[in-house]
Structure formats: C-alpha cells, structure tokens
Write a structure and sequence with these properties.
The protein has helices at residues 9-23, 44-48, 155-158, 169-177, 184-189, 199-209, 222-241, and strands spanning 28-33, 55-61, 64-69, 76-80, 86-90, 99-102, 108-111, 120-126, 131-135, 142-146, 282-286, 289-293. It is of the alpha+beta class and 299 residues long. The protein is globular. It starts with 8 loop residues before the first helix and ends in a 6-residue tail after the last strand. It binds a DNA duplex (16 and 16 nucleotides) through residues 1-8, 63, 80-84, 119, 137-142, 156, 180-182, 186, 189, 191, 198-199, 248-249, 287-290.
DNA sequence: AGTACTACCTGGAGGC
DNA sequence: TGCCTCCAGGTAGTAC
C-alpha cells in the first residue's frame, strides 16, 4: 500500500525540541536558498540577510515552526514542513553515523545521517561550523520571514486556530461544537478551528473515540464531542512521546526516525483487521483525504 | 457566508 | 527489466 508521511503537530514538536537543544544561541554566518519557490512573501536576499542573526528561541503553532531571532530585528523565520519537509542540524565536528538512540519513553530510534542533495532548499550555516538543512522533495513546504515576533501580522498564521495541545479537552470540545455541520474529519483537519491535526491523527482520534469520521459534527452530542476532544489530545500526546510518526521521510533534527508508526490503529491499515474487534477496516475518501475506519467499532 | 473542490509537487509502488 | 500510471496530502485559492 502506498503510504505517506505527514509532519503533523507531534512531528513538528519533535523537530522544535531538537532545534531548541541544538540551535539556540547559534549565530548564522550565511543563509543559502536552493529553491526560491519555497519562499513566501520574502526574497532570497531577505533570507540572506539572516547572516549575523542569533537564534534566541524556537516556538511552534500547529504545524508551523517559529524560529525567533535575537537582537534589534527580532525577526521570525517561519518554517512549514509541508508533506515531506525535514529540518536537520549537522555539527561541523560531528561525524553522524547510523546507529540508535534511546528516548525518554524507552523507545529506541534508528539514526541516519542528514542527506544533502538537490532537495535541500535552505542551508543556514552557523558561525563556528555546523548548519541547519531544510530538505523537502515534494516542495509543499514553505518558509516565511517576518519582521518581529508577532506572527498574527501574516495572514497565513493569523487565521490559525489555537494550538491543539494548548487546549484542555473541554476547550477543544467547545471549539468543535461551534464548527458547523461539516464532517467530523473535515473539522478536525480545519486549521482555523484547531491547529496541528492532520490526516493521521484525525483518523486515529476518530477510532479512539469510536466515532465515524464521515459523521456530521452537528450530530454529536456534548458527551461525544468531549470524547472526541479527549481522543484527539491523547493521540497527539502519544505521538509526541514517541517522537513522531515516520512512514518514509520524517526525521528529527538528528536524522532519527519517529516511533509512533507501530502504535497506529487505523491509518494506512485499510483492508486489514481492526485491532479492537477484527472487522476488516474500511477505506474511502472523506474530506478529500484517504480515510480508514472500523464499521463495527465507530458509530 | 459557509462549504466544497482543485492545483501545486515528486517519489514510490504496482501493473503490464 | 523498464516504462507508464496512479496515489499520497497541507494549504491557498477558486467556485458554488
């Protein structure tokens, strides 16, 4: 079966944590754009102007990484990993060799060296050696450079709803209640309702909550909405603890794969038996996305 | 106004 | 073996 890999909230959070460990305090010596098409509302020259800037902190809103620059400019380099984006860091004195690393959760990840090829669209060289690499074969990723730390100044970020894991289950359930009569899955994927949920975690949340993804959100009572909200937060939390889901491309800043793929209950399992009841899992297009659910478990 | 659909893009998988 | 076609999906823009 053809499967994708999508940087959703847990994957982007995994990258953010790695960048915070490896990148904060680094001063950029040079910024090189490989493919200008990934830039949005900024030029190659604008990005080159990052030379001399120091990375002060790394935040995240939904699937967007927010690299905050120190100093007078206080600019923000915004990175969206799109479908296949990777943001890795290579230390100059570091020979990255394939191996394993044990996560705090106990999961052992495999390590691979960052690949440098024609799909690397941005290189941020650091003073003293080392470099950030943005690599994105499908080029759905985007890079923006904002003046200041206020991300609401750009339309793309201004229309985002609150970050999913900043919410309590009750708060999230409340947002779902206001989301109209669209399919449950359509609402979960709508970044203006809540930011961070993509196709994988939407399907997993529906399965955990025992709710069909093609039901109208308006048909859910308050108890079901709360159940769905709790399920969404639970699958996101598990994804973060497992350092993300890797099918093919997703890696953290050190080139390590995430461990969540083996935890998935429905995503990419269409036609296989339900892990809860044994029923053959259904697969169809819902909200214009490949969607898998159990006819028996999900109502 | 709210909702639905399509273009963008490339690598991998499967068919013949 | 190799070529061809199809499929994956996040977001903005367009159409209804």
């Amino acid at each position: 079966m053809a499967v994708g890999q999508v940087p959703e909230l847990p994957e982007v959070e995994t990258v953010r944590r790695g960048l915070s460990e490896r990148g904060i305090g680094q001063v950029f010596a040079e910024a090189i754009v490989g493919h200008p098409g990934i830039l949005e509302d900024c030029s190659v020259q604008d990005v080159a102007g990052l030379a001399g800037e120091r990375l002060e902190r790394c935040d995240r809103h939904g699937k967007y990484l927010l690299l905050r620059m120190a100093g007078l400019s206080r600019r923000t380099l915004v990175v969206h990993l799109g479908m296949s984006g990777q943001l890795t860091f290579r230390r100059a004195d570091e020979q990255v060799v394939p191996g394993t690393v044990r996560m705090p959760s106990g999961y052992v990840k495999s390590l691979g060296p960052p690949v440098v090829d024609a799909h690397v669209h941005l290189i941020l060289r650091c003073v003293g050696g080392g470099e950030f690499l943005f690599r994105d074969p499908r080029r759905f990723g985007r890079i923006l450079l904002l003046e200041g730390w206020d991300t609401a100044c750009h339309a793309r970020l201004e229309r985002l709803g609150p970050d999913a894991i900043s919410l309590t289950a009750r708060q999230l359930a409340g947002l779902l209640a206001q989301a109209g009569r669209r399919d449950v899955k359509t609402v979960l994927l709508d970044q203006s309702v809540v930011a961070g949920i993509g196709n994988i975690y939407a399907d997993e949340a529906c399965f955990l909550a025992r709710i069909r993804p093609d039901r109208s959100m308006g048909s859910l009572d308050s108890k079901a909405r709360l159940s769905l909200a709790r399920a969404a937060l639970a699958v996101l939390d598990q994804g973060i603890r497992m350092a993300g889901t890797t099918f093919r491309d997703f890696v953290d800043v050190d080139g390590a794969h995430g461990g969540n793929a083996e935890k998935l209950q429905v995503y990419a399992r269409g036609g296989l038996p339900c892990l809860r009841c044994g029923e053959v899992l259904s697969k169809a297009v819902v909200a214009t996305r490949g969607t898998v659910w159990c006819e028996r478990c999900q109502r």
